[in-house]
Design a protein that fits this description.
binds nicotinamide-adenine-dinucleotide, Rossmann fold, alpha/beta
């Protein structure tokens, strides 16, 4: 059967492109034919992410901090100058912050997490939406988390920030009423990644590593997710296969939030 989720010629801007999920998504979108604008504040890892793309892929890397409005305007301009359009925007950069109960959580870190995870997503929407609305087409996918749907211990800022991303997603989808611009978010669960390891270790400082059986015991799929499995849902939402999908929060969590 032919692959129905093709993105040939589409221009996809991906933030957090140097991270585990961002890199997997850049790779999958490029394999499906998209032209890539990879954005991250980590210039070195960003180059690595681009280097591993299929030989025929068209891609540029733009180093930017998503909390800085002028740098966001720069990556939007770079995408428009190079490719003339933005069809897909994966608004994905995020940080976990400290792994600490609220009573010990520093205000500075709380603000930093909201700055990257909420203000960064807001600024991305603010600067990409005008281009998409002008074209009257586009698909935006924000990265929330299952931490945006349920409470999780010792990540209060992260949990608050991801709840906010789901709210921003719905708000932006409504702003696009009557247009061909769609806005959704993905809510990954426990993905095999640096960020998950940091959270698990942060909850068990100085102790022996938590056995995998315990980590996955509340996940019906009985395993961690793969970054590539998040990328697959992003590619679906980016494509015309999701033409009637907007304002949604898609869980990619092996059933964790169903329990
Ligand atoms: N890993 C998981 O289990 C998991 C689960 C649910 C949601 N998420 C979300 O998925 C997204 C990607 O996470 P990941 O696991 O790939 O993490 P990661 O740490 O591997 O990647 C995050 C990337 O974002 C970049 N970044 C951070 N702050 C930035 C800033 N201010 N400006 C530009 N780039 C910045 C980092 O340099 C990094 O490359 C995040 O939004 C995260 O909250 C992850």
């Amino acid at each position: 059967m032919p692959d129905r989720i093709r993105l040939d010629g589409r221009v996809a801007v991906v933030t957090g492109a140097a991270g585990v999920i961002g890199t997997a998504t850049v790779k999958l979108l490029a394999e499906r034919g998209a032209r890539i604008v990879a954005v991250d504040r980590n210039a070195e890892l960003l180059q690595d992410a681009i280097r591993d793309l299929p030989a025929q892929a068209e891609a540029i890397a733009v180093t930017a901090d998503v909390t800085q409005e002028d740098e966001i305007a720069d990556y939007v301009r770079a995408a428009m100058d190079k490719f003339g359009a933005i069809d897909v925007f994966y608004n994905n950069a995020g940080i976990e912050g400290d792994i600490t109960p609220i009573v010990r959580y520093s205000l500075e870190t709380f603000r930093r997490v909201l700055d990257v995870n909420v203000v960064g997503v807001f600024l991305g929407l603010k600067h990409v939406l005008p281009a998409m609305l002008k074209q009257n087409r586009g698909s935006i996918i924000n990265t929330a988390s299952i931490a945006g749907l349920i409470g999780s211990p010792e990540i209060p800022a992260y949990t608050a920030s991801k709840h906010a991303v789901i709210g921003l997603t719905k708000s932006a989808a409504i702003d696009c009423t009557g247009t061909n611009v769609r806005v959704n978010c993905v809510c990954p669960g426990l993905i095999d990644s640096r960020m998950l390891s940091a959270i698990i270790e942060g909850r068990n400082p100085g102790n022996a590593p938590v056995p995998n059986d315990r980590i996955v015991e509340r996940i019906p799929a009985r395993r961690l997710g793969l970054a590539s499995e998040v990328a697959s849902v992003v590619a679906f939402l980016a494509s015309d296969e999701a033409s009637y999908v907007t304002g949604s929060a898609y869980t990619v969590d092996g059933g964790r939030t169903a329990t």
